[in-house]
Each structure stands twice: as structure tokens, then as C-alpha cells.
Batch of 2 targets.
Target 1
Amino acid sequence: MATSNPIADIFSRHAQSVYRLCYSYLGSTADAEDATQATFMKLVANPREFVNAEHEKAWLLTCAANLCKDELKSARRTRSADMPDELVDRTASAEGESDLMAAVLALPDIYKDCVYLHYYEGYKTDEISVMTGAPPSTVRNRLADARKILRNALEGGHHDR
């Protein structure tokens, strides 16, 4: 009889979302793979009980974002890369998609977190507030600011953030 492995089940449910988030921060396939692995290794090292699959996902994405931020601080590096085709949001229209993704990747981290969690993972502002520790009003303001920055970037304008 085969027994279910809870970590493997969690991995199969959320690995792609964790990887996409890591790639959005690190801009490198190898670095994103390393960060994804490190995220799940934290779960292996310190197993925890989750209320449901959304709780799992929220914990994993928060953990992954923190690992990526630590990596970026320690490496003191900059990045610029296009999202690989297999990671692009298939619900978006093909035209302008790469420009939008490049603009999202260029956002400062405080905006990128909110934009990614809201538009790519479907979290509401109250949920993002819990995940990031920022008040809901701050999350809403960051989303509004990010939309302005993205609009300016996509229209060829300049922004001051």
C-alpha cells in the first residue's frame, strides 16, 4: 500500500506558484529553483499544520518572498530578465504581455509583493495585509500606486518611484 506524503502533496499543489514568485524576485531560473527548494525545505525542517490549502499557499508565498528578499540583500545584485514563456499568466492577452511583465518585475518590492499576490495569485487586500504585515489601507494604496507606475511605464512615461 502506498502512503501519502503530506509534504509531497503540498509541493505538488503549490510548487509552481512558489517558483513564479521566486522568479519574479530573482529573475533567474537557477536562483528561483534554489529559492523554491529552500522554501519547501523550511517546511520539511519545521513541519506545521495548515487550516486549508489557502493557508498553506499563503505561508509558502510569504516564506518564499522573505527568502528572496534576504537573497537579494545578501547578494547586493540587480536583475533584469523576461519571465520565461512557461511562467507567463495565460489569462492575460498575448499582446503587451511581455511589456506588462517587464514593468511588474521592475516595480519596487513593496509594490511587486502586492501586485503579485493580488493580480497573479488572486488574494484580496485583507489577505495580503495579513501576509505582508501592512494595514489593508496601505495595501490598497500600494496597489493604486503600482497601477499608476505601471500605466506610466507602459505608456512610455517616467515615474518618480
Target 2
Amino acid sequence: MHWYVDVLKKYAVFSGRARRQEYWMFTLISSVISIVLATADAAFGTNDVIGSVYVLAVLLPTLAVTVRRLHDTDRSGWWVLFGLIPIVGWIVLLVFMCLDTTPHHNKYGLSPKQLPAYGA
């Protein structure tokens, strides 16, 4: 859960780098929350109001962690716009999100793998 909270603490931080684990754990927890809220919307008959509010609330942190993840693979954050291209853009971004960290210092900062582990 700390991965999710850490991303929210960096609400609109587009600089730096994010490891795969940070990105994917945030995505997983956010997806679970979205499913729970969609179920609540259906149960209460609120026409997706609760889910929509959540999506708007996490839109900026989701973009920020995606840009930081692209930085971690030594790509510009502008690559996120490639996701606007249906299917092909989504596949390319998925591949980028799955790539390993660039092991060395790049123009976006130190490799997160060289930093101390969380809680250490």
C-alpha cells in the first residue's frame, strides 16, 4: 500500500524516475479501488459518480508516475502522448512500462535501483 501512498504524495511531480514496482503497484491498487467503486456505484445506483470522482482525483498522479516511469527508461515524458493513438500507442506504452530501469545515471536523475530500498 505504501507504493500507492508514495505516488499520491508526489501528486504532480513529473521530474525524477519511478521504478517498475512503483508504477505497477500503483496501477494495481488503483485498479482494485476503481473496481470496488464501480461496484458501489452499481449498488447505490449513482450512475458512476463515485468512480468518476476517483478517476479525476488520481488522473494527475497517474500521469506523473507514468512520466517518471518513462524517465526511468531514459525516454521523454512526451511519449505519454503516444498513448492517444488507439491500440498501437497503448501497446508501445505497455512495452515501455515493462522495460527494466536504465541501470546508470541519466538526464532524469540517479537510477532508483542505486537508492536505498524502501524502509531500509
